[in-house]
Every structure is written in C-alpha cells, then in structure tokens.
Write a sequence for this structure.
C-alpha cells in the first residue's frame, strides 16, 4: 500500500463527488490533457473514462510513478519529474487542459512560474483547473480594496480570468489536511497589458506591498523618485494604501518602470 509522503505535501483526493465535480469543469473528450501530481490515480481514472486524445502525467514521486506506469501503461505519457523544473510548453504543439491537485507547499510557486514564463504570442494551455489551500485561493481571487488583495492576485489576474469552482473540506482527502481547499478555474485573457518582463510585476508589487499598511508615498518615491507626471497620468493619490490601487494601475506602473529602465 502506497502511503502519502509528508515531505512532498501529498494529500490524495478520494471523494468521488468532488472528483466528478472537477471532471465536469472542462470538456475532456478529444483534448490533450495534463495532470500534475496524479498521486494514486483517482482523478486519472475519471479523465481516461472521458476519452481524452492524449493524457500526460507529471509525478515527482518515484514509487507513485512506477505504480501509475504499471496501472495505465500505454494509456498515458508519464514524466517522473519535478514540475518546478519541467518545461510544460515542450509537451505538445496543441493547447492543453491542465488538472492539478497541487502540493500546497509549492502551489503558488508553480502558478507564478507558469504565468511569468508565458509568451505574448502563445499560451500553452487552454484552461487550468487547479486546487489550492483555501487561504491561498482567496488571495489569488482577491479584488482590490480587500485585505486578501496583494502580489499574488496582481500577478495571477494579469494574464488569467479566474473563478472559484468550489471549496473542498479536509474529509475529501487521505490523509486529511489541516486546512480547507478550493478549486479554481483559469482561462487565458485575450486582452492584457503588454509587459516586457513579467518579473517586473513581481518587483513593483513587492516594493509597494512591503509595507501594506503604509501610504503609497514611500514605495512610489523609492521606484519613481516622486515623478509627478506618472501620478497625474495614472491618477494616483499617494495618500492611499497599496491595496487601494486596482489591477490595471499596477500593470501601468510596471510599464512606466520598464520605460525608465529602457
């Protein structure tokens, strides 16, 4: 019997009702599907029943990888790799539908890596159906003027439209995690602010949110040296706090920052 490894943040989804809800979020038949962290294959079974054109699995755990390969054989393309070091864009020329019960200790890193490495010309996925710790999911979908709003929401909402599918209780997993989970659905935006280097979004938001309870004057001066023209153009009031600026203002600030550095 395969036991979940705490070191890899493994919590296997076992609730069949939730599995069916996940499957129902996307059309699978005839599509190329990527499942990240398939674990013991509970979701994999249902994906295969829906007749995908091709199913790619990425599983870091050696023992689980062997088990999955023996179980599904030529029905899958299996990669025994660390998703953080894997080039997902190399899997196919076609856009993928991605499912993932992501390890909570690296879930935000996975999502941020995928967003930062997107190109303007092409997005390698059609949709993402990903599970996160609820507290993290709340930060991803947070809107401005809320306490959960911050760097993660600003980066995620730059290229993706996001909605919550449902919350999931610890009882749906084995072993049971100590926190609630949330399933999020992502699709790429057709229209978004063109930014030369997405890492600059991270830099701008990091500086502004380093003291999220303070007014904007200090971080703004740190980056833009008090440039009044930018303030007038973007209609920014330096008496506000970082959480009071909407998504687009942070993207426009990033563009202004890139102009200064060019």
């Amino acid at each position: 019997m395969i036991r979940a490894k705490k070191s890899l943040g493994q919590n296997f989804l076992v609730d069949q009702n939730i599995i069916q809800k996940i499957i129902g979020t996307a059309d699978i038949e005839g599509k190329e599907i990527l499942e990240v962290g398939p674990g013991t294959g509970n979701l994999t079974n249902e994906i295969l029943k829906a007749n995908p054109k091709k199913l790619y699995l990425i599983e870091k755990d050696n023992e689980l990888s062997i088990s999955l390969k023996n179980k599904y054989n030529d029905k899958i393309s299996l990669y025994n790799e660390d998703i953080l070091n894997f080039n997902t864009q190399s899997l196919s020329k076609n856009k993928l539908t991605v499912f993932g019960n992501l390890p909570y200790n690296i879930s935000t890193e996975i999502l941020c890596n995928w967003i930062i490495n997107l190109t303007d010309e092409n997005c390698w996925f059609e949709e993402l159906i990903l599970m996160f710790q609820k507290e993290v999911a709340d930060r991803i979908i947070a809107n401005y003027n809320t306490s959960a709003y911050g760097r993660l929401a600003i980066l995620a909402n730059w290229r993706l439209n996001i909605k919550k599918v449902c919350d999931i209780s610890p009882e749906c997993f084995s072993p049971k995690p100590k926190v609630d989970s949330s399933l999020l659905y992502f699709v790429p935006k057709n229209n978004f602010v063109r930014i030369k280097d997405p890492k600059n979004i991270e830099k701008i938001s990091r500086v502004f949110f380093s003291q999220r309870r303070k007014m904007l004057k200090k971080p703004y001066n740190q980056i833009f040296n008090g440039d009044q023209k930018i303030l007038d153009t973007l209609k920014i009031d330096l008496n506000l706090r970082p959480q009071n600026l909407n998504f687009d203002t942070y993207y426009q600030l990033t563009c202004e920052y890139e102009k200064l550095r060019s």
About this structure: The chain is about 35% helix and 20% strand. The mean pLDDT is 93.
